[in-house]
Amino acid sequence: MKKDLSHLILQTEPGSAEEFKDYLVDYVLDLIIIELESLPKEQWDKTLQTWKKIFILSHGLMKKPADFRERFYQSSGFDGMMRTIVENLIEAFKKATALGLLEKSDSPTKLLILAVERAESKGMKLDTIKHIKNALMKEET
Prior knowledge:
By secondary structure, the protein is mainly α. It has one domain. It has helices at residues 17-37, 44-61, 66-76, 80-98, 110-121, 127-140. α1 (17-37) runs antiparallel to α4. It starts with 16 loop residues before the first helix and ends with a helix.
């Protein structure tokens, strides 16, 4: 079942590092949580691997011009939602780097780690967040 989640995409630019981390929680992490919570737990790891690939793809496309990305989306059959997610992640990578939250050498999944850390600091204690954190920590080791 496909759902239109475009209403979750932030339309204003977060200014400070803290506002940006809140954006990561409220828009990036929430999209992943919504998807995980709609699936049986047995599918969570596979779904997180897909999200990891989306982060890696977005990070790789960040250096490409917009017209190249548009041709790539068309040739790959991306729908509007997927295109929006990738473009917003590209902007998130740029903003995180500009704010000094990410270094160019950091793994693309560090963006998700920032979101999980912020969610935990805000007191969010969902099973999905714990699962995401555990999956990310396994990758780090």
